[in-house]
Amino acid sequence: MSFPLTPGAEGLRARLFHIIFESDTPGAKAFDIALIVAILLSVAVILLGSVEIYAERYGHIFFYIEWAFTLLFSLELLVRLYCLERPTVYLKSFYGVVDVIAIIPTWLVLLMPGAHALVMVRILRVLRIFRILRLMEFVGEGRLLLDALKRSLRQILLFFSSILMVVTLFAALMYTIESPESGFTSIPMSIYWAIVSITTVGYGDIVPTTSLGKAITVILMLIGYSIIAVPTGVFSAQVIRSIREDRYSEEACPGCGHDRHEKRARYCLRCGTWLDENSEDPRKKAHKESSDDETPSEDK
Amino acid sequence: MSFPLTPGAEGLRARLFHIIFESDTPGAKAFDIALIVAILLSVAVILLGSVEIYAERYGHIFFYIEWAFTLLFSLELLVRLYCLERPTVYLKSFYGVVDVIAIIPTWLVLLMPGAHALVMVRILRVLRIFRILRLMEFVGEGRLLLDALKRSLRQILLFFSSILMVVTLFAALMYTIESPESGFTSIPMSIYWAIVSITTVGYGDIVPTTSLGKAITVILMLIGYSIIAVPTGVFSAQVIRSIREDRYSEEACPGCGHDRHEKRARYCLRCGTWLDENSEDPRKKAHKESSDDETPSEDK
Amino acid sequence: MSFPLTPGAEGLRARLFHIIFESDTPGAKAFDIALIVAILLSVAVILLGSVEIYAERYGHIFFYIEWAFTLLFSLELLVRLYCLERPTVYLKSFYGVVDVIAIIPTWLVLLMPGAHALVMVRILRVLRIFRILRLMEFVGEGRLLLDALKRSLRQILLFFSSILMVVTLFAALMYTIESPESGFTSIPMSIYWAIVSITTVGYGDIVPTTSLGKAITVILMLIGYSIIAVPTGVFSAQVIRSIREDRYSEEACPGCGHDRHEKRARYCLRCGTWLDENSEDPRKKAHKESSDDETPSEDK
Amino acid sequence: MSFPLTPGAEGLRARLFHIIFESDTPGAKAFDIALIVAILLSVAVILLGSVEIYAERYGHIFFYIEWAFTLLFSLELLVRLYCLERPTVYLKSFYGVVDVIAIIPTWLVLLMPGAHALVMVRILRVLRIFRILRLMEFVGEGRLLLDALKRSLRQILLFFSSILMVVTLFAALMYTIESPESGFTSIPMSIYWAIVSITTVGYGDIVPTTSLGKAITVILMLIGYSIIAVPTGVFSAQVIRSIREDRYSEEACPGCGHDRHEKRARYCLRCGTWLDENSEDPRKKAHKESSDDETPSEDK
Q1: pLDDT confidence tier of residue A1, bands split at 50, 70 and 90
Q2: Of C293, D40, D96, D116, which has the most beta carbons under 10 Å away?
């Protein structure tokens, strides 16, 4: 989604707009890089700030750095809004919301320091990286992936609901077999264990102790180990399809209605009709000149 | 499989049938959603009921809720049977059995409370979700997956029997090498360990202690890590095939017997024979009118 | 590989041969199933025999059962050799060696009981299952898989040697960083840890304790998590190729030398030459009869 | 990259060059094998030397062996440089740097023994194996893989940056939920845990203890379990593409500009133009001789 510049914007405003919202000029590129660095730094500060020893030693420094970044991002947001024709529209957009989320909590934290729980909200600013990804033309790739995901979505949903059923049944089974001492204190806990096992994570915090339990676990693990082939296979197939279809145009042939031609095709590959209506069929001319001579139309 | 409505059923009965057994009317859709919610809720109650602290505090509430759901499902089943022409046929079908299984145990549990072991049977009602999946047109996807699975079944069977042989041999080897103290108390136990390792689950409850044991473990893990490519590769290939064949009709060309035409093909792509017997070949007409003029038949 | 029956073998001998070495008659099928059951049972006995409590309680029974199976397999081997023209050839073949291995150790064990180490050799009889797989026409599937494996072998070798290099470097790095207390007592031990990590097994018996070590581990795990895509991708591609090529004949077209025709193709799909030299080209006849009428040859 | 031999090099020098830098003569092959054995042995010595018990017992032997290998590799490097026209160019190349790295540290270590930290640098000599891989014609395979990797690189980058965002968010969430006692002492630590979980490694050194934490972990594990399908699918698709394109030539057809012909194609598969300019189109002749007779050009 793009946001229009205020029409008839004077020099400064227009220049700011191009720098902030586009990425084709050197200035804009520099701004993007500066921005992503700033985001990563501010995230790094939050991460380090959560480490006790660093917090004790450099707590106050982090505090000032965070102040700086908050002011920086606030300023940036203000400039963004200043450039745009309809700021409110932007604020309601995904990127607008992320921008606000990236700022507000820090203000709160700075006003009432030590709001431990807010770290979660503050970290949300990593989402701003998506903007940069967008600018870095990763969108094309992303679209292809999303396209394939959309196609395989229902199959993967089916796959997951089946997994969850299997997991629930195995969990209930283990709950009845294993003793609570070995960690299977309830069905939800057993479900946690079953998912740890079927996803092949295997923490080992809950482990079967009875022989029967181990036998069932073996089955569950083999299911988890082999069933991963299903989403992978489905998704591979869909990616391949997406790549292939990228090569084909959607227009049907006027002659035979065949509608899977490579984009650069000039003749229908089924009935040979001339597809490109902008130019004339060379075979026509060829025919006028010579009829006994070898012409492409008869070759094929 | 579908179940016929009693022929000449009066208004109410017919209406109930459409609501319960179909999903194309708003009423039917609402019913499906209500049903799936009810199923999930009743499963949730069972799960929570297995957590001690909740059981102690809200045990009696869960008891009443379970009563309610049991009555609800029983009523639903009765209505289903009431709608159908041959109820017994339905009861013998997969969905019928699941419906009964979803009800009976609860009755037993309610009559003799605290039957801990029955939780396994009670949880079986999650299987009812399959019905909803069916209604949600997931069947198409499912068929495609099953189609691919059927195709790769023998290869995957071969894959598994090979894995089990490898696992057995490694297990016996580790049993002879490792000391019982480190958990390899018997070959079955070693097999459990070997599968935990080859599936990359790696609980860590049994772990090699000797250098030789560790060396063998390394080999086993590398096998498990790379061998997963086999079922995945096979399955991917089969899914791709299923998708592709979905595009082709099975009817052979009367001209040359070629039988892999796209469903929308009108000419045989090998010998050019007209495939659609419902309409007439445009080339015929074209020929009558003009023989020197460029006709699709000669283009190609 | 197949083994010839003694030529001019009298009734009994020939009948035995067909039952034992083939699997197309009911008798032969029954024999196969009986054999596989016997093999699995004898393996099961070995497995259970390694469990202490069972060994104590039913040790003597296992002893007798093993006697029985050993005699049975010995008898079977003798009959096999009796049927064949050149027994020695068979004994030198893979299946012959497996058959002998499946018997000898048990004799040794029975003569000097409690030879703990020999369990490894005794278990080798599971390999006999391969014979059954062969009879069950799994070979076709197996060939396809092996075909694809052979094709991707070098890439997968390259993949593995790269992994081992990465693993060695990471192991040496962790050995220098982590303290021996946390398990990194030597580079070989670190390599064991690195492989446990890169294969996503993650026992947790050796775990990084320093921050730097954890950071490096993160990189190693991400490598292991994503690099699995390489063998899978390569193998998938090769399986797809194998399946596709299965559809094509290797004979080149006499007209244009194109050599990728579907096995059921009758005309060369590039230059239209008639491929099946056993029958005559219908177009020829068609031409004789009528030249202005629509003929397949001109359609295409 | 290849390095030229000093022009007009006399016998010995030329012979050495062919033996060391090529691998088509028996002598060269022998040298390669000897070299790879030497490299592997010297690496093995380093590995064993890091094991305490071996170091104590055979420390001095390892010391001498290392001396031997160092002298050997130094000699080899000198000979290489002696053969080449521009030694400095070689020394600046990847292989040259690796060769030097493989020698220098050992010299240092031998002069100041027990430089524990240097083991990391010494192990770098495993990189020399790449040279052998190159000689073993693995390059072709490697190129195909790298080609596919390059193609899927951006998608996999996108994939990783998304994973890291997910991981950061989950880590921050768990840090706020879980107590430091259970290991979530800081966000970086939680990130370590999140990656251990999402990559399905699952050491189990840090594990959620609260119910809410376990619920979130379940989501994270399911994400990690299914998301692996993305890079695998992308990469599979790209490998398949690389293999396919390997079959096609890049030259466009002079007739219709179609530029995806199989390398062995002789006619353009879209417009039938003759592609091989070295020989003459057989259809031409066919036409001269007979016009009513069946000619390939009209067949198709």
Answers
A1: very low
A2: D96
For A272, the closest of B126, B237, B296 (CB atoms) is: B296
> Amino acid identity of A229?
A
CATH number of C143-231: 1.10.287.70
Q: Residue D222's closest CA among D170, D178, D259?
A: D170
* Whole-number Å distance between alpha carbons of C50 and A126: 56
Of the given ranges (A81-85, A139-143, B128-132), which has the lowest mean pLDDT? A139-143
> Which one, of C130, B220, C155, lies nearest residue D141 by Cα?
C155
pTM listed for this prediction: 0.82
Which chain D residues touch B if contact means CB-CB below 8 Å? 200-204, 232, 236
The domains of chain A are located at 12-138, 143-231
Q: Residues B223, B205: contact at Cβ < 8 Å?
A: no
CA angle D203, D205, D207 (to 5 degrees): 95
A290 φ/ψ sector (left φ>0, alpha ψ -120 to 50, else beta): beta
Which of D165, D260, D297 comes nearest A129 by C-beta?
Answer: D165
**Environment class of residue B208 by beta-carbon count within 10 Å: exposed (0-12), middle (13-18) or buried (19+)?**
buried
Look at the alpha carbons of B66, B69, B73, B79 in this order and tell me if their dihedral is positive or negative: positive
Would you state the structure tokens that stand for residue B73, as one six-digit string? 């499902």
Residue B152 has pLDDT above 70, yes or no: yes
Residues 6 or more apart whose CB falls under 8 angstroms from that of C112 comprise none
Predicted confidence (pLDDT) at residue B291 exceeds the cutoff of 60: no
* Closest by Cα among D108, D122, D103 to D46: D122
Match domain D12-138 to its CATH number in 3.10.20.90, 1.20.120.350, 3.10.100.10, 3.30.420.40.
1.20.120.350
The CA distance from C28 to the nearest CA of chain A, in Å, is 32
Interface test with B, best of D236, D267, D270 (most B CBs within 10 A): D236
Interface test with A, best of C199, C218, C232 (most A CBs within 10 A): C232
Instruction: Give, rounded to a whole angstrom, the gap between the first and last alpha carbons of chain B.
Output: 47
Burial of B272 (0-12, 13-18, 19+ CB in 10 A): buried
Higher per-residue pLDDT: C26 or D206: D206
- What percentage of chain D has pLDDT greater than the value 90? 14
